[in-house]
Design a protein that fits this description.
Layout: E1 2-10, E2 13-19, H1 29-36, E3 45-50, E4 57-63, E5 68-69, H2 73-87, E6 91-96, E7 99-107, E8 110-117, E9 138-141, E10 147-150, E11 152-155, E12 159-164, H3 173-181, E13 191-199, E14 202-209, E15 213-214, H4 219-231, E16 238-243, E17 246-252, E18 257-263, E19 268-273
Length: 274
């Protein structure tokens, strides 16, 4: 099987994008895992673009373990840039499992996407039992063997938990991530962010993504972290989220809708042979 695809990234959070609007490419779970493997093509997520009469297109996201995800912020921004170039239109609407997402292309490399409102109720995360989602009191242990209790749970199209700590360098996300991802409280698993407040408008983070592992950046994690910061009175409505590869700017508007702004890469066309 030979087919064309695109490769793009947002702050190093990278994607293989397959356009199924004219020619359909059907892949098995094993084939998706193979494409995502860094020893083959390699990416954090694989994205299918599909035809949609109610939007510019619809998107389906698959993590590197082959499982489907309801949302992907950076992936949505990348596809918006790709379709904007094709349509010569600066405003793009894309349908996802978590709803219709509107993106604006501010210039050829900066895209903003409205993710919508965060969901905070325990059964919307979802959790396995009713709890206060602002503080789940989950224990994580730092590299000095100190215990830290906390965790704010938020759903922004997929489930996230955010731990606010004094120094993110003191926590090994590659150890903590898999443990919390499969925690009994999260029947659909979750994404994990270790976050450090620098000031009211800046948060440094490390992210472990459900089904993908350690990633250089994660758009929905940035949105969830900014919202959790505001919820806990730690940050303002406008916050920069800093990854090792750069920053995403998050705005929570007067209607509590979340907007994410950041760079996207050039569009690279690739050929895949399976």
């Amino acid at each position: 099987m030979d087919f064309k695809a695109f490769k793009m990234d947002g702050l190093g959070n990278d994607f293989v994008i397959i356009d199924n609007r004219q020619e359909i490419t059907n892949l098995t779970k094993d084939q998706i895992v193979k494409i995502c493997d860094r020893n083959f093509i390699g990416c954090d997520q694989l994205i299918f673009i599909e035809s949609d009469n109610s939007a510019n297109a619809s998107l389906r996201f698959f993590n590197s373990d082959g499982g489907e995800s309801g949302a992907c912020g950076n992936g949505t921004r990348c596809v918006a840039a790709l379709i904007s170039k094709e349509k010569n239109n600066k405003s793009i609407i894309l349908n996802t499992l978590s709803g219709k997402l509107k993106s604006q292309i501010l210039d050829k490399k900066i895209v903003t996407t409205e993710i919508g409102k965060a969901r905070l109720k325990w059964d919307e995360i979802p959790l396995s039992k009713e709890m206060n989602t602002k503080n789940l009191n989950i224990k994580i242990i730092d590299t000095n063997n100190n215990e830290h209790l906390g965790g704010t749970a938020i759903n922004v199209g997929n489930p996230h938990i955010i731990f606010f700590v004094k120094r993110i360098e003191d926590f090994n996300i590659e150890k903590i991530g898999p443990e919390i991802e499969s925690h009994e409280l999260f029947p659909e698993k979750c994404n994990i962010t270790i976050a450090q407040i620098i000031d009211k408008n800046l948060i440094k983070v490390k992210v472990w993504e459900r089904g993908a592992g350690l990633t250089k950046a994660c758009g929905t994690a940035a949105c969830a972290t900014a919202y959790a910061g505001k919820l806990n009175n730690l940050t303002e409505n406008k916050t920069d989220i800093e990854f090792s590869t750069g920053k995403l700017s998050i705005l929570i508007d007067e209607n509590n809708s979340i907007h994410m702004k950041g760079p996207v890469s050039d569009i690279k066309e690739i050929k895949i042979k399976l």
